[in-house]
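WARN retry 2 of 3 for item q-0093 after timeout on previous attempt; input resubmitted unchanged.
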Amino acid sequence: MKNLLRKGLLLLCAFMLAAAMTACGSGNSDDTKDKTEAEETTPEEDTSDENADTSGDEDYDLPGLNENGKFNTLDDFINSSIMQEQLEEQVAALEESGISCEITAEGDKLVYSYTLVDDSLTSSVDMSVLKESLDSSLEEQADIFAGVAASLPDAVEGIENPAVVVRYLDNTGTEITSREFPAE
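OK item q-0093 returned
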C-alpha cells in the first residue's frame, strides 16, 4: 500500500510539473510576440518609413515567425528555440521520474504525450486505479489546458479550433487515458 501511495504521488507530481510546463510555454510565446512587436516599433532615432527596419525577426532567431509576430504553424511554434529550451529542461526533469514527454502538433491541436517508461510505475499498479487518478488530475487541470488552447491563436497564425490534447501511455505505447481541452 505504501508503494502504491508513493507511485500515485509521483504521478501526481509529474502531472503538476507537466501542467506548469504547459502554462510556462504558452506565456513565453506571448512574451516573444511582445518583444518582437517592441523591436519593430522602437527605432526612435529614425521615424521615416523608408529607413525603419520592420523585420525584427532576425534578432530573435525565430524561424517561422511572420510579419504579424506570430508563428506560421503550430510545428514552428513547438520547434522554436524558445520553446525547445524550456521543453528540454522540463522533459529532463520528467525523465528522472521515469516519464518521457513528447509534444507534437496535430492540425490545430497541441498534443502532450506522456509515456510511463519506468516499468515500476505501471507493473505493480492496478491500471484502472491509475487511469482514474490520471483522469482526476486532468479534470483538476482542465482550466489551465483550456487556457493554453485559447492562447494558441495569439501565437500561431491561422488556428481556428485550438485545443490541447493530453495523452498518457504505458511503456508499450498503449494509451492509459487521454483528454482533449478545447479553447473556452
